[in-house]
Amino acid sequence: TGAGEGIFAGASFTAPADLQRTWGLSTSYADLGPMTPGVRSVQVIEESENRRVIAIEIKVLWKELRLVFEVEQEPPEAVRFRLVHEVIGDYRGVCLLRAAEPGQTRVEMATW
Q1: Is pTM beyond 0.90 here?
Q2: Which of 2, 21, 39, 40 stands the most exposed, by the fewest C-beta atoms within 10 Å?
Q3: What is the mean pLDDT of each run of 10 residues along the chain (112 residues)?
């Protein structure tokens, strides 16, 4: 998309779990398929300590798409992703975590 075009979304909330638990839940992709409507499969193609490449097959209405996300992780505080797709375009996002009150984590997310 050109400058000023596209979709931006942001959200922030306090998770009722400590930072380590929230990090673990935020970076586990095993349940993504069963939890997300339209997701047919999730496959980790490449994995290292701070980087993953994840392929997700989805069905939206009558169209099936294979989306490949590059995910960079800075444990336990940040997850950044990028998707480049011929139909969807260049799509990016970030999830930032920080310890809040005891047993809680502040989560800030944005996509663009």
Answers
A1: no
A2: 2
A3: 70 98 90 86 94 94 94 97 92 97 97 95
